[in-house]
Structure formats: C-alpha cells, structure tokens
TrEMBL record:
The chain crosses the membrane at residues 60-81. This is Uncharacterized protein. Keywords: Membrane, Signal, Transmembrane, Transmembrane helix. Residues 1-28 form the signal peptide.
C-alpha cells in the first residue's frame, strides 16, 4: 500500500511538472496557450484567427496523458516487485 501511495504522488507531481514546463503562453500576442504533455489537453486563444482551430478542454487527451505517465511509473515498480518476489 505504501508503494501505491508513493507511486500515485510521484505520478501526480511528474504530470503537473511536465504539463507546466511544456506549456506555451502566447495568447497575449495573438498566439495560442497550450497545456499538456505529451498531448495538448487544453488550448485557448484570445486573438483573431484566419483558420479554424478547435479550442477548449479535451478530456480524452488528459486521460491519455495521465495513463502514459502512470504506466511509466507502474511498469518498472511491478517489474522490480516481481524480481524481488522470485528471489
């Protein structure tokens, strides 16, 4: 149970850190604000656009992002646990 709590906390911290570090804040100069790593799960623009771009929240991208990060943390922990168990 202790490992699950640590993994969950580390996953959440990593997800938030990567999302913040890879975000783009360009709406002040007619650009697009984008949030999310590796998939963009939210984008916003306050400027005028010539082409149509879908803005807003994309829940499927958020779930995929979170699932990838959980997998990246869980798989090594499961492998290590199975190696320790077999010894």
């Amino acid at each position: 149970m202790k490992g699950i709590k640590r993994t969950s906390a580390a996953t959440l911290i990593l997800f938030l850190t990567l999302s913040i570090l890879t975000s783009k804040y360009e709406s002040a100069s007619d650009g697009i604000d984008e949030y999310g790593f590796p998939l963009t799960f939210y984008n916003h623009s306050s400027g005028k656009r010539d082409s149509y771009v879908e803005f807003g929240f994309k829940p499927y991208a958020l779930l995929i992002d979170f699932g990838l990060i959980v997998s990246c943390f869980s798989i090594p922990i499961l492998i290590i646990a199975n190696i320790k168990k077999s010894k």
